[in-house]
Every structure is written in C-alpha cells, then in structure tokens.
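Record 1 of the preview.
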Amino acid sequence: MSQPLVPNLFDACYALTAAIMGLVAQLVLLIAAAIPPLAGLAATLTSEPVVASVTWLIVMTIMLLWVAVFNLLTVMWIERKLYSRLQDRYGIMLSIWSLPFWPFNRRGRATHMGTGYLQNIADGLKLLQKENLTPATADSPMFHIAPVLIAASTLMIFVALPWSSGFYVADLSMSLLFILAAFSLAPFGILIAGWSANNKYTLVGGMRAAAQLMAYEIPLILSVVAVIFVTGTFNVFEIVAQQEQPLLTLGPITIPSWYILSPLILALVVFAVAMVAEMERIPFDIPEAEAELVEGWTTEYSGMRFGLVFAFKWLRMIAGAALITILFLGGWSGPVFVTVYAGSVAIPIVPEEAWFLLKVWLLCALFIWISWSVPRVRIDQILQIGWKRLIPLALLAIIVAAGAIAAGW
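->
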C-alpha cells in the first residue's frame, strides 16, 4: 500500500522540538556561566512537559495552516473557477503577474490570463480593512459570540479528522462520534447569529437554518449507524483500515473493499444529501436565499466577521467531503493495489495525503457543480425531503447493512 509523507506528525514534531530545545538549552548553559541563575532554565526547557506542550502548539499550527490556509484557498479557487466556466466566463484571474512591480507586471502584454489563486488572498485582505459594524439594536455579546462558536465548532472537527495514517492531531477511540458532535454545534451559532442581530431577515434565516439542520441531522446520523453496524467501531482509522481489505483479486491486481462498492451505497447517498444540507449549499441554501432574505442570517455581519463566517462555510464543506472519503471511499488508500515480490503497493505509488486530497477536492468539485446546476427548493420541500424521504431511506440502509452482515458479507 502507499505510505504517508508524514509517518507520524506528533512524533516528527516532537523530535524536532526536542532537538531545538536541546540547542537552546546548550546556549542557555553558556550564558549561565556568566549569569548563574539561568542554569535552572536549561533543565526546564528540555523537560518532558515543556517539550510536549511546544510540540502540541507546533502540531496545531501546522494543521491550521494545512486546513485553514492551503485547503481553504484551494477549494475557494476551485469553486470560483468552476462556476465561472459553467457560466462560460474566465472567472478570477489575479495572479503573481498582476503585481504592479517588476518583474511581475504585465505592462506591454496583450492579454492577462492568470490562474486567479491570489484573488482569494486579496479578498481576505480587503475584508480585513473593512469596518466591523454592530447594529445599534443588536444583542452585542451574542452577536459577537456567534461567529466564534461557528468557527470553534468547525475547527473541532479537524482535531479528530485525519488526513493520512500519520498526519493527524489526535487519534480518539470515539473520533467519529466526536466529529458528528462537532458538526451539530454549528446550528446553535447560526440560530444565535440570526436572533441576536434583531433583524427580521436574519431571524427568519436563523429559524430556517435551525429547522433545516434539525431535519437533516437525523438521517445523517442514521446513515452513519449503518457504517458502524458493518465496522463495529467509532474510530475513523479502523474504518479506513477495514476498507483496505481486498474485495476482488484479478491476478496481481487487487481492488480494495471501499464501502461505495458494497451494500452501504444507499447509506452513502443519504449521507451525501444530508451533508449538502448541512453545508447550506444549493439546493438547500434556503437559510440564505438571497432573493428572499438578502443574505439570510449573515445579513448584519460585515468586515472580517463576514469573511470568517463564509470561510468556515467552506471549511465545513471540506470537512464533509473528508468525512465521506473516510466512511465510504477508502480514506487515504489508493483505488487499486498490485502484488510485487509478495508485497502489496498502490498504483500509482503516491503518498496517502495525495490520495486523500484528490478524493476530497473531487467531492468538493461535485458539490460545487451540483450547487450551480440545480435550482433552490422551497423550505417546505426541504423539510419534506428530510423527514419523509431521507429518514426512511436511512432506516432502509440500516436494514440492508444488517441483512448483509447476517448473510455473511
């Protein structure tokens, strides 16, 4: 099988931190020859609690940069370029060649065809410069707490969400339950944001969001129950490991048993539809519904708070795509293995992180394509789909999974 670029993120960071702290301690000892009270500082710097604490800070920083910077900017770029092409236009084109100084300026060039990747950075800097306004009639503490609650609940998801067998923050025995619980916290922030602004549009948007998310949380969790029936575990690493078992062998080529190729495909359909509703994307974006509610529950937010809310909407889409990848698409394992010298390796031989990113980005592109290709449905239709269609299908998925287990699958 393919191997991760990072065998173990914490161990690698711990070794690096211990080495750096050792060098700093040696420097402190040299200085302590002239200033004796500093001698005790060297032992403190190399102690286990200090090294472990600094290591956790480094791990969290790396994960934050990986998820909230690289992946966020990439998915935003994919969305803006993809829906531009769907509308038969180029879309964003700001790139390094757009910078106004040599050697990057485009003076004298007939056309400008940049990739547009820097546009999202420019938009973020623009939002940073805008004023954060608070409505005079708003409940100020709750109005300011709501974006923080949404952001915190989203970041909690990535604490237990691995990107490979070695690239993760924490390996929790109940990691799947933790992720689902973190997903369910955001509706509280949305409802608080809609209510605290004291605006009829935000209030209606918040109430719609609460009703929609309540209707789709149940089929979302029921579809996960079908997976748990088959795997018998809440640990996402064990779920991925079970999908790496061989399903079909054709000579030297082995196809792994991803759950998309199993009776759990019905659970996948229910989970994917419910996850799109959790992301509040078209056709389930009724809490925003620009034609009816201006910007829905985000109407009164401005400046970086507005940017923060929208950034974490994209992060929730990344988290949803990553969770689908882990539960049904084999996680970070490749789609085909080949036996070479009695060992199994992935084809092509690429790192686990690359496989995982490829699946996540393709799922995000699928969500974006759906969002810009179908019309919005009414609030009553959304609730009917959730309560009257998806819940029975999720229960059927559980029955199918139980039947497959009873049949010896």
